[in-house]
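Re: weekly structure request thread

Next one in the queue (184 aa):
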Amino acid sequence: MEETIKSILKYIGEDSEREGLLETPKRVIKSWEEIFSGYKDDVSSIFKDFENDGYDQLVMLKGIEMYSICEHHMLPFFGKASIAYIPNKRIIGISKLARLLNIYCRRLQIQERIGLQIVQAIEKNLDPKGAACIIEAEHLCMKMRGANKQNSTMITSSLSRVFKEDSQKGSASRNELMHFLYKV
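Done, posted below.
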């Protein structure tokens, strides 16, 4: 792998033998092990769940910092995610929602897929009345190259069950979710 990174340095016009770049291949490999650690993590292992003791209202972790790497250009995107669900019979510790986000973000990704994967994992492992993931992120592939739009933010939503039902009319659960997200 180190030789591959040296080849990349040469391709972009650098001298991989320059003093400042001698350790770069090792540093890149070490950083990739952390940045892409989501491939090694087992999603179901974080779902240590508990009885909800009758609680059946919105559970939300809002404003979770996140970053990932765009699979199209291998450039970072970063922002905040909010993850919510309405328990059926089981709940999980709130830190598990942040860990779930980390697992999916630490892979080559697209923003839309991250939200979908989070909602599907919550659905599969908790069987809630509904799950949601809203992500607001800035993409360096939009800022550094291509469109060169410095102030653009991408917002995606992934919703299931009660959050998605009657989206035309606006279900009570969906309205509550949007209220807490945006204070509307």
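The beta strands are 49-51, 59-70, 76-86, 90-92, 108-109, 130-139, 154-159. DSSP finds six helices and seven strands in the chain.
Next request, please.
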